[in-house]
């Protein structure tokens, strides 16, 4: 086990390189236990593993790692971020209600609005940057406040301590989607949150090679509830992907520190550009959540979004950018440029999108590990092409 004085960067490595549970070979990489079942040595006392849906040593190494990194007591690995979120929300009962941020991830929006109502678990959306609005949405049957910060795609910030204080006042649980920050930069359990959720597909994995989700708890009862749901729903992460995710986590600090420094430089470049009408990045003092964000997190991270003058300008820009891939997702070693209107937020009606500021000129950028000056040069040449093309017409 880890020494409590060690720094987070050290724990990223030690959390998973000290524990080949069963064979004690000293292997620094946890073996990939490709086994659905486990031979039981004794008739009337079973070993720690019996069936890999209920527990697998490779998955357990990952679950212990994320629990340690988030300062929790138990971790749970799922087949996707959405599987983690769904399984955590299904610990609720028919008749319960949740208050959820209106800037929530699209897949969570779909689950909460289209699946949970079938089980009579209802919801109210609220602007989580406004604590009065959050409190006003609480009902007698509310059980959970569900936050995501920074949020997608405008990087809206929720005051976690404020939301957690409201939850405690009304005896509710706080669930936090910590995908954008990761425990490198933000540890909501330390602030009093109850359940941490991750799309580990993003920064924790870091290489755009796996789909995975994680949940972390501190309290024993809610940990037992999520374990029960993980085993009952069965949306577990396989051993091979658990191994890949452990490898990804080891380089989290190295990747995200560089990516965040590059994102900050790009945000300043975009802010000064004549063609960019707005930049959304919590690291800029112009961002409305800047001060709140730095009360609860130690970096602005590697995702930002920015607005270009028109759909046409945006199209030519995207068609001429050479380095970033144009795709959904984020958090990879490659820079990823995405277009929320037709990608992550396509399911939201145009009126609602416009109201939220998700315009036809909005692009989201997840900054990768390429040389930042190459990226800036690439954007400059693509801006020049877009100016040329839109001026001709
Ligand atoms: C991607 C994402 C999810 C969903 O995770 P999957 O791994 O795609 O299922 C949830 N929350 C946030 C903030 C995300 O970016």
Automatic annotation (TrEMBL):
InterPro entries: Cys/Met-Metab_PyrdxlP-dep_enz (IPR000277), Cys_met_metab_PP (IPR054542), PyrdxlP-dep_Trfase (IPR015424), PyrdxlP-dep_Trfase_major (IPR015421), PyrdxlP-dep_Trfase_small (IPR015422). This is cysteine-S-conjugate beta-lyase. The keyword Membrane does not apply. It comes from the Bacteria. GO terms for molecular function: cysteine-S-conjugate beta-lyase activity; pyridoxal phosphate binding; transferase activity. Its EC number is 4.4.1.13. GO terms for biological process: methionine biosynthetic process; transsulfuration. Pfam families: Cys_Met_Meta_PP. Belongs to the trans-sulfuration enzymes family.
């Amino acid at each position: 086990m880890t020494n409590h004085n060690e720094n987070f960067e050290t724990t990223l490595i030690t959390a998973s390189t000290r524990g080949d549970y069963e064979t004690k070979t000293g292997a620094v990489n946890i073996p990939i236990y490709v086994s659905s079942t486990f031979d039981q040595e004794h008739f009337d006392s079973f070993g720690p593993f019996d069936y890999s849906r209920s527990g697998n040593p490779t998955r357990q190494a990952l679950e212990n790692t994320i629990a340690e990194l988030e300062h929790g007591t138990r971790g749970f690995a799922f087949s996707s971020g959405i599987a983690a979120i769904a399984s955590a929300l299904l610990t609720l009962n028919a008749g319960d209600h949740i208050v959820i941020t209106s800037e929530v991830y699209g897949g969570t929006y779909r689950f909460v609005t289209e699946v949970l109502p079938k089980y009579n678990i209802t919801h109210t959306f609220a602007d989580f940057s406004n604590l009065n609005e959050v409190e006003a949405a609480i009902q007698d049957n509310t059980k959970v406040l569900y936050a995501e910060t920074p949020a997608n795609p405008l990087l809206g910030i929720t005051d976690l301590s404020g939301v957690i204080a409201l939850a405690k006042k009304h005896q509710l649980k706080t669930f936090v989607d910590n995908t954008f920050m990761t425990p490198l930069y933000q540890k909501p359990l330390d602030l009093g949150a109850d359940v941490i959720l991750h799309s580990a597909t993003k920064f924790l994995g870091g290489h755009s090679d796996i789909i995975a989700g994680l949940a972390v708890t501190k309290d024993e009862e809610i940990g037992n509830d999520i374990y029960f749901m993980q085993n009952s729903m069965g949306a577990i992460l396989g051993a091979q992907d658990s191994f890949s995710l452990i490898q990804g986590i080891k380089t989290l600090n190295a990747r995200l520190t560089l990516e965040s420094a590059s994102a900050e430089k790009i945000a300043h470049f975009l802010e000064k550009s004549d063609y960019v009408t707005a930049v959304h990045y919590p690291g800029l003092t112009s961002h409305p959540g800047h001060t709140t964000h730095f009360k609860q997190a130690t970096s602005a991270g590697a995702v930002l979004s920015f607005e270009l003058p028109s759909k046409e300008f945006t199209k030519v820009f995207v068609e001429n950018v050479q380095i970033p891939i144009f795709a959904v997702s984020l958090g990879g070693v490659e820079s990823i440029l995405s277009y929320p209107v037709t990608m992550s937020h396509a399911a939201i009606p145009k009126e609602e999108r416009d109201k939220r500021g998700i315009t036809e000129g909005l692009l989201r950028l997840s900054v990768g590990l390429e040389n930042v000056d190459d990226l800036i040069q690439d954007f400059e040449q693509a801006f020049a092409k877009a100016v040329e093309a839109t001026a001709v017409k």
